[in-house]
Amino acid sequence: MKNVQILYVNKKKIVPVFHEHFEEATKGRLRKLKSYFDAYDLLVPVEKDPQADLYYATGAIHKLNYLYNDKENVLCLVEDFTSMDKQLLKYFRRLSMLYRTSPQTKKKLNTTLSNHRTINKQKLINQSLITRKMLKDFQYSESVPLSIQNENELTNHPLSQNTLNMIYDLTISIDEKNHLFKLAKERRIKQSEILAIKRMLLEIP
Predict the structure, then answer these.
(1) Which long-range contacts (CB under 8 A, 24 or more apart) does 128-131 make?
(2) Are residues 182 and 87 in the same domain?
(3) CA geometry: angle at 110 spanning 165 and 163, to 5°?
């Protein structure tokens, strides 16, 4: 890094390279902690576009949306300008280090990776805390109906892709799968219990 600066940037000039989904619990925690944050906690990393008066946010969108929602200027760490691929890799690296990622954000991550094929999965694994298993768990199985995916993501506390995959990959009827989804959504059944059902089904001749 050659010319890193810390300065205030007008919020209207900041363009996120990736849009996350934040659950209500995360928003609540941010509002609760807001009054305790120091300058470091408020920093938003950005890259200045050399050809336009724009700054690309490469992380900390939760700060931009929920700590500066009533502010005109944002305290930014201005880093060297790179490429879109490198900006996304930065974002995903910072994303994986922050907190439990919502199913909606995982789905967006997969869509982004599909649209930017020059970011191969191995490079992402090498440059972040995201593992190969996590990438697999970020995807819905083909057995999960689109209507169920959408219903899950519209709830305040969505289930993980992995939990839905476990349910809809079971060798039972669709009605039984939907019933298990309902139980899981109501937190009346755990992953360990779904695994127990899977093992039981495997033992049936």
Answers:
(1) 128/89, 128/92, 128/93, 128/95, 128/96, 128/97, 129/93, 129/96, 129/97, 130/92, 130/96
(2) no
(3) 20
Domain extent for 77: 5-137
Model confidence at 98: pLDDT above 70: no
What's the pLDDT tens digit per position in 25-75? 777 888 788 888 888 888 999 999 999 999 999 988 888 878 888 889 999
Percent of the chain scoring above 70 in pLDDT: 95
Between 64-73, 79-88, 125-134, 148-157, the lowest mean confidence (pLDDT) is in 125-134
Q: What percent of the chain shows pLDDT beyond 90?
A: 39
Q: 128: which 2 tokens?
A: 């972040």
8 Å CB contact between 87 and 16 = no
Taking the C-alpha atoms of residue 35 and residue 30, their distance in angstroms, rounded to an integer, is 9
Taking the model in full, what pTM does it have?
0.70
Q: Return d(Cα 144, Cα 91) in angstroms, integer.
A: 28
Is the same domain home to 95 and 52?
yes
Tell me, yes or no, whether 176 and 85 share the same domain: no
| Number of CB atoms found within 10 A of residue 11's CB | 16
Q: Is residue 57 within a helix (H) or strand (E), and if so which, with residue range?
A: strand 55-57
Query: Whole-angstrom Cα distance, residue 84 to residue 141?
Result: 29
**Coil, strand or helix at 68:** coil
